[in-house]
Amino acid sequence: MRIVSGIQPTGNLHLGNYLGAIRNWVRMQDDTAEKGGECLFFLADLHAISMPHDPASLTKNTRAMTAALVACGIDTDRSYLFNQARVPAHSELQWLLNGTARIGWLNRMTQFKDKSGKNREGASAALFTYPVLQAADVLLYQATHVPVGEDQKQHLELARDIAQKFNNDFASEDAPVFTLPEAIIPADAARIMSLRDGSSKMSKSDPSDNSRINLTDDADLMMQKIRKAKSDAEPLPSEPAGLEGRPEARNLVALYATFADISLDAVLQQFGGQGFGAFKPALGELLVEQLAPITSRFNALKDDDLVLDGILNKGAARARDVARPTLDAAYDALGLCR
Ligand code: TYM
To answer: d(Cα 40, Cα 282) in Å, to the nearest integer?
Structure first.
């Protein structure tokens, strides 16, 4: 069992990343250790340059995201934690896989369409080939499982297609170069939505900070954002079917369920018939209570560049060792003499 996943260091860790992915990383880290497997988690700083960016902020955000992941419970003795730029094998394998990935496959990627918007011609080539780097990220380590939110499912399917085609074209059936990885998507928090609009996902790129709860927000700000979150005038239903057509209500109830680790049913049994005036403060308090230990660990670590760089250097050195045999096998399979 080898778990591999990444996150872009483009800003604060928000509830979408946390509940959709990072909380699962921490849980899988505990399970995997018991089963004798390994976990590799990385900051996708190479992916971050696919959009316009400020170099100084990228450095700062890479360290800040490292602190956030450690604060959330990533244990850097048991798991590998590093940034892509410290492991050049990611870029090397991406180039090798560019020979296998098809333009038609990349053309179907919805994230490219979303992020390039109306200005496709002006988008960077990196934004287009981004999913090939993501495939390299996981194939490099023979990942068996990749914990992600729903929005990354298509990229993971592409990684499997690339691995399959590479194995078919360049390896024998009994000695494949790459393992086909499986996406692990949380059933309850696959898609956390914006607090301002229940039909779009909570995202770092939303210009409104009120659309998301950042793990760095203080208690007052979290309570305020939940109070201001878009909702509706109806009381909460007593069963999940009653949330149909009420995306904002569904999102707030789902947040409560995920944090309290109970079902939607159980939340609605407790709050059914009550209005948001009663529900929002309860949700806000639950959130503050659960996130407070993470926020205080984050604050204690976030400015310690020496410690943070030390963590990344240690993780990267170990990751380079794990990557080496697969990278060598890929060069050899393609007939590249070195
Ligand atoms: P990124 O940085 O956008 O998000 C990191 C993780 O958080 C999940 N996520 C969400 N889950 C539920 N609801 C939301 N609103 C929400 N927003 C974000 C994402 O699904 C993701 O799991 N391309 C990736 C980073 C990446 C990667 C990889 C992931 C690079 N290489 C290899 C897995 C394996 C990205 O931009 O995620």
So the answer is: 36
Name the CA dihedral angle for 102, 88, 27, 300, rounded to a multiple of 10 degrees: -140
Mutation pick for ligand 1 pocket among 46, 152, 205 (CB with most ligand atoms within 8 Å): 152
Give all strands of the β-sheet with 182-184 in edge-to-edge order. Answer: 80-83, 38-43, 2-7, 145-147, 182-184
Regarding the beta carbon of 9 and ligand 1, being less than 6 Å apart is answered no
Chain mean position to CA 106 = 20
47 CB within 6 A, ligand 1:
yes
Instruction: Decide whether any atom of ligand 1 lies within 6 Å of the 152 Cβ.
Output: yes
Backbone φ and ψ of 205, nearest 5°? -90, -5
Substitution site in 148, 158, 197 for ligand 1 pocket (most atoms within 8 Å of beta carbon): 148
Reading the block at residue 26, the tokens are 């921490």
| pTM for the whole structure | 0.94
Catalytic residues: 115, 201, 204
Task: Give the tens place of pLDDT for each residue, 132-150.
Answer: 999 999 999 999 999 999 9
Q: Which helix H or strand E contains 39, and what residues bound it? A: strand 38-43
